[in-house]
Specification:
Blueprint (H helix, E strand, L loop, with lengths): L7 E12 L5 E25 L2 E13 L9 E4 L2 E11 L4 E8 L3
Antiparallel strand pairs: 1-2, 1-4, 2-3, 3-6, 4-5, 5-6
Length: about 100
């Protein structure tokens, strides 16, 4: 891993389940950590869903091997949230390769 290529700052949010005062289970994302990453463009297209134009973008985030990230986490980068598809621990490079897509709200 070349540390100089980790030039973007990302935030990782972890899924947490809480029980509210009515006994309902609520799932929400809570802040877990800030780390540096290398961000690469993977895929992008424009689709029409429910008569609405939606831009789907996929990114690849490359972080160090000690970053606590799972498939249920979310990444915040440049003010936008990304849903994680895959987390690949690459032992030979001492890093984690994260494939994620932009969440369209």
């Amino acid at each position: 891993m070349i540390a100089g290529r980790l030039n973007e700052v990302i935030q990782i949010f972890e899924l947490q389940e809480e029980v509210n005062e009515y006994g309902e289970r609520e799932q929400k994302y809570v802040f877990k950590c800030i780390t540096r990453a290398k961000v690469e463009w993977n895929n992008g297209n424009r689709t029409v869903e429910n008569n609405e134009i939606v831009f789907n973008y996929d990114k690849i985030f490359n972080v160090r091997s000690y970053v606590p990230v799972t498939e249920t986490s979310q990444i915040k980068w440049q003010g936008k949230f990304y849903r994680i598809h895959t987390v690949e621990h690459r032992r030979e490079y001492n890093d984690i390769l994260i494939n994620a897509e932009l969440i369209n709200d």
